[in-house]
Specification:
about 475 residues, 15 helices
């Protein structure tokens, strides 16, 4: 039996205001977003303080200004809104492989029927999605229905409603006011003239008469709303790379105000990466200025990651040691060096070791971000028998995770803790047989001739000793300690 469809609609009613408020600015001031229609400017959106002064959407700016002398006006950026919606659609791919973003609507649709078993049912999945949306700081309304048109209607008219079968959906639709169709105003006026006030009134009218009076498209729309006719929606195709720019409503001149914006962008990036099963190895954060070249920040990781909190901590370290020579007007985050990243669920036999490795890697990444990439180095082995020349320090590269090389300089037993310079050993000691003899280095002015032995103290500590064969005194020196 085929699996029935179930759609979740996420409606963002105040998207343009959310993009401004995420910066932490102008939240307490009366503010409106304006757009031009013809030769006039109209209020597209107004925040709570502006609405308290009597300003509302669809009001002309000329009528709004006398109501509030300190009113802040900002232009609407359609490109920024569309970019945010496309990024949210890519973010939604972590929950389902079928996401649709209707052009021109502040809405994304997710087909969640195929994901219910994975996430534990409808309400569990709905809660998981809304919880994940929280850090993105968008105001959202959700609706769930068996068909996408009905889910869209519920998100706008009855947010929070979940309907999973067709009969319950039909009962609910009959109560919806006529305005929920978002119809052509002229067509709605004709329907009101017929005494239609709700969708129930509309559904009771003869279909043939509706088609003759208002056209067959209205019937097709009603059939899609009830799930009677197919409503195929194209899947969202995410871009090959993540790049998102957030324009700031006001110029900023410090690091701290940028952090909420950066956190929101990194949370969106983390969801985008989870949806594609990827991790990011390097981030580029560009700080844009007015009439000046942008300031690029390169953030490198030792291993691919999609942990938003960790990415924010590393970016914060880089940002705080960056000298800002001009105010900032926009912020761009782009992901580079993408690679496949395995998804781990639950506990495994090696969870503790993996967590320790992750903690160590994150510590090293924060140190590199704070001190500079050249300040944190790793040790690597060299194929040289002389202990003092058997290692060297080198810059930690992306993806190396702080591990040393795999070259083993000797076949003999070597302690990890080597002393440089060597010192005379504590007495008394109990030498054992000669472990190895080293005669090497005549070609690079590092000539050595030594006998090495293992010894132990009365307390049981294991030592690594040597004597210089070129020195007749026969003194044994302590070269290292075994664990």
């Amino acid at each position: 039996m085929p699996r029935p469809d179930l759609w979740l609609a996420l409606y963002f009613p105040h998207l343009c205001l959310d993009l401004i408020h995420q910066s932490g600015e102008a939240v307490a001031d009366p503010l409106v977003i304006i757009e031009e229609k013809g030769r006039q400017q109209w209020v597209h959106a107004a925040n709570r303080r502006a609405r308290q002064r009597g300003i509302h959407p669809l009001m002309s700016l000329a009528a709004a200004l006398p109501l509030c002398r300190e009113l802040i006006t900002l232009p609407r950026h359609l490109f920024a809104e569309q970019q945010a919606l496309e990024t949210l659609a890519g973010w939604g791919l972590q929950f389902t492989d079928h996401v649709h973003q209707p052009p021109g609507e502040p809405l994304i649709l997710l087909e969640i029927g195929r994901s219910l078993r994975l996430f534990g049912g409808v309400e569990a999945l709905r809660g998981r999605i809304l919880e994940a949306l929280g850090p993105l700081d968008f105001q959202v309304r959700a609706g769930i229905a068996p068909c996408p048109s009905a889910a869209r209607l519920l998100a706008r008219w009855a947010p929070g409603t979940t309907v999973t079968d067709g009969d319950a959906l039909l009962r609910l639709l009959r109560k919806a006011p006529l305005e929920t169709l978002e119809d052509d105003p002229k067509r709605q006026e004709r329907l009101r003239g017929l005494g239609v006030r709700t969708l129930g009134d509309l559904l009771r009218l003869p279909r043939d008469g509706l088609a003759r009076r208002l056209g067959p498209e209205l019937l097709r729309e009603l059939d899609r709303l009830r799930g009677w006719s197919p409503d195929p929606l194209p899947r969202f195709n995410p871009p090959a790379r993540f790049e998102h720019t957030r324009h700031l409503p006001f110029e900023m001149d410090g690091h701290h105000p940028l952090l909420p914006i950066l956190e929101s962008l990194l949370q969106m990036l983390a969801g985008w990466l989870r949806g594609r099963g990827l991790g990011v190895g390097r981030l580029r954060v560009a700080l844009h200025h007015h009439r000046r070249a942008s300031t690029p920040l390169q953030v490198g990781l030792l291993a691919p990651s999609r942990d938003a909190e960790h990415l924010l901590e590393v970016c914060r370290e880089v940002l705080e040691r960056t000298v800002l020579e001009a105010t900032i007007t926009a912020l761009t985050v782009s992901a580079q060096d993408l690679s496949r990243l395995a998804h781990h669920q639950g506990q495994t036999l090696f969870t503790t070791g993996a967590e320790q490795q992750a903690d160590l890697r994150q510590l090293l990444e924060r140190l590199r971000a704070r001190l500079g990439e050249d300040a944190v180095k790793r040790l690597a082995c060299v194929a040289d028998h002389r202990p003092e020349r058997a290692w060297y320090s080198m810059k930690m590269g992306i993806g190396e995770e702080g591990h040393g090389g795999q070259v083993h300089p000797s076949t003999g037993a070597r302690p990890v803790w080597l002393l440089d310079p060597p010192m005379a050993p504590p007495c008394p000691i109990t030498p054992v047989e000669t472990d190895e003899r080293i005669e090497s280095g005549w070609w690079d002015d590092g000539d050595v001739r030594r006998d090495y032995v293992r010894a132990s103290t009365p307390a049981g500590q294991s030592l690594w000793l040597y004597r210089d064969l070129r020195n007749p005194d026969g003194i044994w020196y302590l070269q290292g300690l075994f664990g």
